[in-house]
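User: Can you predict the 3D structure for this chain?
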Amino acid sequence: MPRKAKIRARAAELQAFFEAAGATPVETPLLQPAEVLLDLYGEDIRGRAYVTSDTLRGEQMLRPDFTVPVVQMHMDHGAEPARYTYSGQVFRRQEDDPSRDNEYLQVGYEVFDRKKPSEADAEVFALMQEVLTPLGLRAATGDIGILKAAVAGLETTERRKQALMRHIWRPRRFRQLLDRFSGRSEVPATRSALIANQDPMQNQFPVIGLRSEAEIAARIEALKEDAKAPLLSSGQVELIEALLGVREKLPFALEHLRDIAVDMPAITEAVFRLKDRIDALSKRDVDVGNLEFEASYGRTSMEYYDGFVFGFYAPGRADLPPVATGGRYDALTRVLGQGREIPAVGGVIRPDLVLQLEGGI
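Assistant: Here is the predicted structure, written as structure tokens:
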């Protein structure tokens, strides 16, 4: 049997497993409106997706994943609660690593249920683990919601909190901002000169780019206002660093986070949610005592995850991407639902990697 036919057959088996668990099979268009994805992720998405132009429909993107179109479909006409499964091609540019596939199949399982989010988290993870158990994969988990709660609780300006929130998924930029806001790094000389200039717009330089003069002036004023903001205290920065450094088996990670929450009460509710998730996972016979938790896990994924995140990896195969990934994306439903929202969590499996590890290809 040809390689692609084998992968499609394995994908069909995985989808049938999710259908048996109660999911409704759905399909989404291969071409997605670029405007929606650009609004969600900004211009960065162009570096990861294939973009085409249509005279009537405007810019379109080859589907980079299923989550956004499935959420859009559910928010437009889905019932509650809902469970969906799908199988199909996704397309992602791999310019940094040409050895990675830029076109491959995904099989997914998504849950939209507002009653008990922690149980939905456990449901998705446990199903993924069950179907992948024969492969002996290593599971990793995290929780973006704890870091977001920590940033929201910082004693600083809303503008600085928003900047840190925006770059949670860009660890290097997040660190640079944290250092600048706390005074650990110096303000660039060009910015200092701009801020010191009483009227930087008087130089009458030509306006280059898409921003208008009014937008440029507003940005300069924002920079001047930010320069007057008090520095983040060393204590707050140390707590963020301690949080980002948590990497232990799940029960020990919970105790470590509880200790941090004593001095950082903003994360208390998120830590309670983690405890509820641990209990829900245990009820589904997941060995939480040996499940890895890393507070920074998931920060380089696409930016819609805002809570529980997980991945399954083949031990000793650093050359392979994760076999399965997933997480919670409540905020995405609010954005695409135009004010309406519902807790949602899901995960995807790559059948080509499953088949490769099984020795089928």
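The longest strand covers residues 82-91. The chain has a mean pLDDT of 88.
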